[in-house]
Amino acid sequence: MLEIKNLHAELEEDSEVKILKGLSLTINPGEVHAIMGPNGSGKSTLSYVLSGRDGYEVTEGSATLDGADLLEMEPEDRASAGLFLAFQYPVEIPGVGNMTFLRTAVNAQRKARGEEELSAGEFLKLIRAKAKELQIDADMLKRPVNVGFSGGEKKRNEILQMAMLEPRMCILDETDSGLDVDAMKLVSDGVNALRSPDRAFLVITHYQRLLNHIKPDVVHIMSEGRIIKSGGPELALEVEENGYGDLLAEAKA
Amino acid sequence: MIPRAKLKAQKVDVAEAFIADRALPEGGAWITRAREAALARLTDMGLPVKRDEYWRYTDPRRLTETAAQEAALLDPQGEAPVFGAFDRVKLVFVDGVFDAEASDSLALDGVELCTLAEAARADLHWARDLYGTLEARAQAPVERSLASLNTAYATEGLLIRVTGKPAKPLSIIYRRSATGGEAMVRHVIRVEPGAEATILENGPIAARFNQVMEVDIAEGATLHHVRAQGRDHERAGAAHLFAQLGAGSQLKSFTLTANGALIRNEAVIWLDGEEGSAHIAGATVGDGSFHHDDTVFINHAAPRCESRQVFKKVLRQGAIGVFQGKILVDQVAQLTDGYQISQSLLLDEDAQFLAKPELEIYADDVKCSHGSTSGEIDPHQLFYLRARGLREDQAKLLLVLAFLAEALDEIADPELAEDLRERMEAWLKRRV
Ligand SMILES: Nc1ncnc2c1ncn2[C@@H]1O[C@H](COP(=O)(O)OP(=O)(O)O)[C@@H](O)[C@H]1O
Ligand SMILES: [Mg+2]
Fold it and tell me: What are phi and psi of A67, to 5 degrees?
């Protein structure tokens, strides 16, 4: 489904800053992959390059979603094609109601895919049900997007968007950071509810904790813009116990 | 000559050239007295010139040159008229002249309505205590002599006395039929104790307009004022809103401006009684040769009053937006709550926003804040929306409307607000 080959990316404004240095990754439908790695290894950059944020220059390599060249597409077209990024730092948008935003997004994607737009009633029914599962109350839906939300509320709001948009390839960038135990459970339940044979996940995380709730099929360790080791869930446990030190040394050797 | 005297002489010259071929209109005793007094003020002060500190960001020449420049008529291209969907009392002016045939009946429960043309023929009128009085009051601390010009020469307008709570809004509609010409329009509004009304205005008035609205809001009375100034590109004009508020009274005034070669909207508000509340807001969208100036002066002259100024401008392709706003808090005005925000959203690098926010506070127990910002569309917000599937133009539109929302929120009636929001959306859709 998602196929990344030898991806190199640097900062657009400073080509000296090379962030991704030959990253390759293949994720098949139904799979959950986790990427772990020290701060600054390029995890967020990978998620931004895949979703099309300005500011990065891809100098080599490719990334395709179901065979389509992601890197050639506008961010909105990537979204309509089924790519979703749950942001590490969700953006506040004063003056735009959360509900209006979501309805506009859902219908923009449906329209781009040539599907019928949802009526106000259909949308309302859907969002009420999904919001309830994530314990997002009516007030949060009415408030401007992410404005005045706590860290946990922002992350739950990202998962709500994911649930509403039903993307096929979901990237979660440190969705667990800043969550307490209860919020972590809500978020992981939200993610698990979406798991299906034709949907895949790339879960970027710092801690093994989240992976107890969202069981990955494959765990990758990322360092300095590359994947230095891949393995099963036991790799995450190893990181939890010993830190990255040994793995990084091993990769350098 | 010392510079100050030279500036004064220049201003007086401009005024004298302007009135050289204009005789004061004929009228009854009360209005003749007011007109003569205004003319004396005008010839004493002169008309504004670019070197006036108070006109630092806006060159007044188009408003003061003897002949008004022409302005092409806007083709509305089938767009439904502003406020068209509302049940209202239509009061129509064509090229600045009241058109009784196109207007609804002036009889309405809770309001006494009369045209200025008719009132001017009488020897006595209730408006005599207001007409020109608030304009004269507004000449300090800075001169607003364009308004004196209006007091002296205006022959058209409405005198509105609100005695109850009329069931419908009074909707003043300005249509144009001529590309050239000038209009001076003068409205005087008195809202009696406890009364409440909504006054709507829409349309471009004339190729060049000079409009003054004097408003006296008595104790416990409320006035809602919602104005859409038309969008004829080449027109120029100045509008003055002078309002004095009694104890516990309320004024909410909102203005939408789209396009215009030079539009200066001034508001001078006196909170004279305790616990009065004045909200003055404006939303502006303009491009090209657009020059728009909001100049607001709010005087807190009594304790426990509240004022809010919310001005938002969306500018592109060389448009210039100006905001001068001052809150003056007298020594007696303890527990004043004053808020002022002026913001511009520049859609490209050619647009400009010039702001001069001021606070002058003589009371010690007050809460006053002001802020002014100028910026572009936030790239992080734009990317966030696009990452959720919104097309770039759609995302920009949503963000621009979100920027304007705080000003629109100052309109009390949500349906009126929605009507104006849709206008702005249509304007933006054609451009963003
Ligand atoms: N916009 C940017 N400007 C400057 N440096 C950046 C920018 N984006 C990423 N970097 C740098 O690239 C490296 C990788 O960052 P990031 O992708 O955020 O890592 P991670 O998410 O793994 O912590 C860091 O050294 C970071 O400072
Ligand atoms: Mg990161």
Answer: 85, -15
